[in-house]
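ARCHIVE ENTRY
Sequence with per-residue tokens
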Amino acid sequence: MRSENHNINIFKEVISPGESKEVNFDVANLHTSSPVNIPIIVERSKKPGPTVLFTAGIHGDEVNGVEIIRQLIAKGINKPKCGTIICMPVINVFGFINLKREFPDGRDLNRVFPGSPNGSLAGRVAYKLVKEVVPHADLVIDFHTGGSGRFNAPQLRYSKEDKTLDTLAQVFGAPFVLYSKNLSKSFRATCKKLDVPLLLFEGGKSFHIDEMVTNSGVNGSKRILKHLGMLKTVFKSTKPKQDCLFISDSKWIRAKYSGMFKASIAIGTHVKKDDIIGNITDPYGKFNFFVRAKNSGYIINVNESPIVYQGDALFHISTKIKK
């Protein structure tokens, strides 16, 4: 981690050590000509130290991540003891306004990085984020949630090859780490190419704020800041209730039949092979199919949709834990 104590420049705004500033990321105008800005909240200590960037809302329907960063700001956790903390609670502000995952042009922001200055709207936002903000960061923590109807246990994701992130993941203290490859043109893959370490936090589901997930994200962020010497002493950083489990392999259990679905196992639970973990029924009381675990492992995602179709993903279960 770098330890810098000089002025930084974001979108032509100069932020000096010891200064607090809200920088406007001028995205574009609405079709009504109203301007749309993404607020970037920058808090700097007079003491030199690393720069941590907190981001959320890359997908506009993932409000739980927005809530985590909102709490970091509202509680003053983002005011560092040393170094700099940059918070971007809502990157896809267009999607957030409409509670949609994508940009108005239908593009997934997390599939257009590093973007282009002359490309689509989503591509231009990605380009400006990568050029103006990311270069200042020594560490990025990016908050996401599960897809619509699918609830993720709090977990961190990064490539198995990023061994340097294992220590930070243990410090963060989420219940699980799920090793996963960097997807092409994702924010995570772009940061990797720029040699900026990124921890991707997944928890909960879209269109939903969950207290357990929010607490995991906030407490993990405090532990990271304390580890880096950036957390003010007024804030307590508690140890995680359980050791972080590193999942090196996992698979989905899919619906064998269409029907009404109900899970009977709590998220994060360890199950044994052939345990009943849910059931699929028909609306007429004539059919009841029990969903069983195909292997022993931890349930890290549960489909909470009441209606499923044949082939739908029901449970994400670990198959191999790193020792």
Remarks:
- Helices lie at 63-74, 93-98, 121-132, 164-172, 187-193, 211-227.
- DSSP finds six helices and 18 strands in the chain.
